[in-house]
Amino acid sequence: TAPCTLLHTASSRCDEIQALQDKGCPSISLENPRGNVTINEDRPVTNRRKDIAEKLKSDQITQIQPQKLTLNLRAGEPQKFSLKFKRAEDYPIDLYYLMDLSDSMTQDLQNVKNLGTDLAREMQDLTSDLKLGFGSFLEKLVMPFVMTTPKKLENPCAPLSCAPPFSYRNVLSLTSNGQEFTDAVSRQKTSGNLDSPEGGFDAIMQAVVCKDIGWRNATRLLVFSTDAAFHFAGDGKLAGLVLPNDGKCYLEKNMYTKSAYFDYPTISQLADTLSEHNIQTIFAVNETVYPLYKELSDLIPKSAVGTLSGKSSNVIKLIIDAYNSLSSEVILENSKLPDGVSISFVSRCKNGVTGTGDNGRKCSNISIGDEINFDVTITTKGCPSKGKSETLHIKPLSYNEEVAVVLNYMCECECHKDAIPNSPECHSGNGTLECGICRWDYALLLLFLSSTLSFGQHAVGSVLWGVSCGQHAVGTVLWAVSCGQHAVGSVLWAACCGQCPVGSVLWAACCGQCPVGSVPWSVSFGQHAVGSDCGQCPVGSMLWAVSCGQCPVGSMLWAVSCGQCPGVKCVKCLMQQTGGAQSCPKECYFFSLRKVKKIEDLPPLTNEEFSRCKEQDNNDCFIHFSYATNATGAYMVMVDTPECTSGPELIPIVGGVIGGTVLIGLALLLIWKLLMIIHDRREFAKFEKEKMNAKWDTTQNPIYRSAVTTVVNPKYEGK
């Protein structure tokens, strides 16, 4: 398909080329980008012979070509390239011999002492650059694996003599001096422990990850020699070691220091670590445990198993045969693929042999100097990583060389590079003109919409048009708001816009007729005019008291005339006195009182003549009453008995708190359980995904033994 860059087209921009042309897209406006492969580094594989060529360092030798490529990937379009591999002659070899020094290996140790010079002599046809190292292992220094009494830690073989127990010791780092290897091994003594399986997995992990060993950029071989089975992850729990092995180096003075801290490594952890460090493992074991290590080897890529004869006399032949077997097979592996990206291999091996699928990654029976090829195809379904470049690594298993493949995703047309920001074609510069269409800047779009509302870009006659363009009468609410004369709801806004009738509180405050709370203000709201002569009102009447200052602001009379509830002082007095209002303070004289039994007997709330009030006395009881005013005084109706609330019931409160706490606790437990279920499901899904990406076959656990034993009674006849 191809995108049409025709401006303002209303139809789909992505379609078949002919369909776009039929819709009116000119050919010059069509884009149909294609993926491609570019080789960035292409050093040729090394061609030389050991007997006539100069000696090269390992980083000067090339066995796979090319070394770096860049792929421009379009969704659904495969990109194919070829890799060439050739085993180089006289390639450096690092060999680290890791030996079980339990007491049962005493005779084997004697034969290994001459390994250095003999192995160098036998391997001279394979390489002139050989380095040897030596390490030993026994067991974790904790019960029940080793007796931890002081005497047994000094000599575990008493009454015989042997060396103190240990977990792992790096006896000699990699060296090209064969005699130094012989001398270091000659100084070693065996030791003893309690159980039969040994702690060799700890030793393998430390020998692989520790830089003290001195691994070079060379063919790396680790020879593991033992006559016993192995402990693995989970066995450490017998000694209370529950922390999983973290796969890090803990060597101090060439001794492993965390044997009593971490559990043993898992088999898969060892396999990943060996593969990551490009180390090939040779298990040199006796005949008794050969089946166990053969099954273990099936779980560890690029590993081999050989049977030691009595006293390890055939160890050199075993190592050379295993090396030739491992080196004759080339297996390609790749790093984790981005989401939506797939890869496939086709191998083109010796004698015209071709492999596809899983067999497309490997070739067998490859000798030194043989050249083989692999066709690699990579396809993407979309644009992972939002179009950002990613790098994929392809390497021969257990080799130090690799091919870097840079993946670029074609998620945009070429015209994307010529985009015009703030183009006039995009609504007055509020977008980017890209490939013939506008891509909005949403922040600018919002500003554009707000600006069009402010400047009249809306239908004529609409409310917004009226507000923005001043189509309303001067002095109206809309006029005041739009012209910014006063804040909505303020006194000025109410007064100027006619929202306060003459004589109202707002009108009085706005127009300055009488200060709020003053006597004239109170009188003006008492429905009568203020006279300068106090005699205009009957002496003793409410109007007389108010006009002549007998009603101080805030007193009961002032409160009644101004629409507020009378204070509790007069209410309590009138309720308690039997002699009438004359027995109360002066401000209470103008009230007449009638008592009722219940709140329901008070004048109804719908009666506009009366106002309903509630006051609290000194005993925290509430007095309910209603009152009304007239020209001569005030009339009050009061409930005879105050409403007193009893104290809180402690039992329901305590019970409610306890019940609420329990419910909240249960809710938190349920939430925690739900979160754990979600977490477990995610972890299981992650495990399933990692299992699918595993690079080795899934077979039976090599250390599994059935717990069922069947015994047949020889006398049983089936009756």
Walkthrough of the structure:
Residues 673-719 form the Integrin beta subunit cytoplasmic domain. Keywords: Calcium, Cell adhesion, Cell membrane, Disulfide bond, EGF-like domain, Glycoprotein, Integrin, Magnesium, Membrane, Metal-binding, Phosphoprotein, Repeat, Signal, Transmembrane, Transmembrane helix. Residues 2-413 form the Integrin beta subunit VWA domain. The protein is of the alpha+beta class and 719 residues long. The chain contains 19 helices and 27 strands. The strands form seven sheets. Strands 3-5-21-20-15-18 form a six-stranded mixed sheet, with no helix packed on it. A hairpin with a 2-residue loop joins β22 (431-434) and β23.
Number of strands: 27
Which secondary-structure class do the elements indicate?
Answer: alpha+beta
Number of helices: 19
Please tell me how large the radius of gyration is: 49 Å
GO cellular component, one term: synapse
GO molecular function, one term: metal ion binding
Protein name: Integrin beta
Transmembrane segments: 650-672
Describe, in short, the structure shown.
With 719 residues, this protein is an alpha+beta fold.
Q: Can you lay out the helices and strands and say which pair or pack?
A:
Elements: E1 2-3, E2 14-15, H1 17-22, E3 36-41, E4 64-65, E5 68-73, E6 79-86, E7 93-100, H2 106-112, H3 115-122, E8 130-137, H4 150-154, E9 168-175, H5 178-186, H6 200-209, E10 219-226, E11 251-252, E12 255-256, H7 267-276, E13 279-285, H8 290-299, E14 303-307, H9 315-327, E15 330-334, E16 341-348, E17 354-355, E18 362-363, E19 371-380, E20 390-396, E21 403-409, E22 431-434, E23 437-440, H10 442-454, H11 463-469, H12 477-483, H13 491-496, H14 505-511, H15 519-524, H16 542-547, H17 556-561, H18 568-576, E24 591-596, E25 611-616, E26 622-629, E27 634-639, H19 650-692
Parallel strand pairs: 5-21, 7-8, 7-10, 10-13, 13-14, 24-27
Antiparallel strand pairs: 1-2, 3-5, 4-6, 6-19, 8-9, 11-12, 15-18, 15-20, 16-17, 16-19, 20-21, 22-23, 25-26, 26-27
Helix pairs in contact: 3-5, 6-7
Membrane topology: Single-pass type I membrane protein
Subcellular location: Cell membrane
GO biological process, one term: integrin-mediated signaling pathway
